[in-house]
Amino acid sequence: MKRYLYISCLVLISFISCAQSQDINHELINKPDLKNYIEILASDSLQGRFTGSEGQKKAAKFITNRFNQLNLNTPVSGSFSETFILNQRYWNEIYIKKDGQIFTNNDKITYLGNSDQNTEYKTKLVFGGYGTDEDLNQIDINGNMVLVFSKNIRASYNIGSKLSSLGAYGVIIANADNDKQFSSIKRSLGNYILRKRMRLSNGDENTFNKKFQEFAISNDLIKTLTGKSKSNLLKLIDKKSLADCPISKISVKTEKINNTIETENIIGIIPGSSDKSILISAHYDHLEANGDIYYPGADDNASGTAALLELAEVFSKIKNLKYNIIFLATSAEELGLLGSEYHVNSENFDASKILINLNIDMIGRYDAKHEPTDNFIYAIGAAQYPEYIPYLELADSLYQNCEIDYSLGKSSGIPTLYRQSDQFSFHKKGIPAIFFFSGLHNDYHTPRDVANKINFDILTNRVKLISYLIEVIQKYDKVP
Ligand SMILES: [Zn+2]
Asked: Domain limits of the chain?
């Protein structure tokens, strides 16, 4: 790997002599500790540490106890926990019922709407032709479900909003010319809508500002629902006699579940003399168990959490730090960086006081670009914050047992990986942020991400390199 040449031997010698006087003991970072932490965090008892689960709470307690033992300071709240609420919403039962026959979602009907109908509702179904003013003027829309034909179901939002503003209960859309479109919508939009989502609670969970139901249906259902065949309905449009279409009765249910989940980031602080802080982050949550199968997440991200705890130990021994060091173990990262998003938007957070974020996520394995014996670590974000490259290079020179690999961050613009862990929440606030990572592998987000696949020797070296980096950031306002 290419090194920058301007770090002279003289700088190294002067640094080493100063560093000794500061008593930063990087050797406190050791393999047995890291192994112990990862084995606990990835153990059966923690069941994958999914946000809000009992296992996540146990992991939070474990981190809190360690911060306590190390005598870290709490944030101003007086607690190591930064609690926040997530709102989980997902669709449960969705169907249209006609004469006792039930048509469930993503079979012959696909729900397109975003308005709940949590108890079954009886409504009338009227036929609205192509949904033109001329067609709609022939029928009674108010409070009713309206079947319309559309040449393009995907582009039929305007029909929906028009019917909604005219007081319809909902719309059912079919493409009478091309039934294949229904299948394609079922595959894409239908599944998109069904995804379980969690988001930060904004205190206003109450549902939807309008009540309006939207469905797409397969042409098979046109006659079942209306009592008239597709060709007969097309004739009614031509004859401008839509009112002749029989009005049928259907029932609709679109049940949305709203859950509230409480979770917490764990924060410990080592004070320095400056009002600025170095913020070390690692997420400790992982994925939801699938029945009895759980996801230990040893690499993702028990490895980073263990690293954070070891770094906290090293720097907790130092009394005369310049910058505060904030250790932030985040929850809800796997749900979309929600823990870090909450943190950077919380009342007490001041972006101008954070010098840099060093985020650690998955540093116990290796990817296809490397050999299992390679002592390397990816630093992603150096290209975005080149002012930190001299610090990275200096740390790399001082600690020869681990090489920094910059290759994953070199794409133009923001690399995709950089958006995929907590550093991105800090970057979005304009805070320099570097992501430490050892690459994707085949066990990523599978039950095979287990503790005994971690390379503990290389992991130990990686954590020591980060420890040296923290030391050089503490020491130099500008690398000489
Ligand atoms: Zn992760």
From this structure: 9-73+271-475, 89-257
Residue 361: closest CA among 284, 249, 294: 284
Distance of CA 176 to the CA centre of its chain: 39
Tell me how far apart the alpha carbons of residues 224 and 479 are, in angstroms, rounded to a whole number.
76
Q: What is the pLDDT of residue 19?
A: 43
Q: What angle do CA 343, 348, 353 make, to 5 degrees?
A: 90
| pTM for the model | 0.80
Contact status, residue 88 vs residue 299, Cβ threshold 8 Å: no
Of 161, 187, 162, 174, nearest to 125 by C-alpha is 174
**CATH class of residue range 9-73+271-475:** alpha beta
Summarised one tens digit per residue, pLDDT across range 95-128 is 999 999 999 998 999 998 878 899 999 999 999 9
Q: Which CATH class is domain 89-257?
A: alpha beta
Residue-wise pLDDT tens digits, 53-88: 999 999 999 999 999 999 999 999 999 999 999 998
Q: How far is the CA of 362 from the centre of ligand 1 (A)?
A: 6
Query: Cα of 424 to ligand 1 centre, how many Å?
Result: 13
Nearest to 465 by CA among 370, 412, 410, 395: 395
CA of 156 to the centre of ligand 1 (A): 39
Strand-pairing partners, residue 101, are: 98
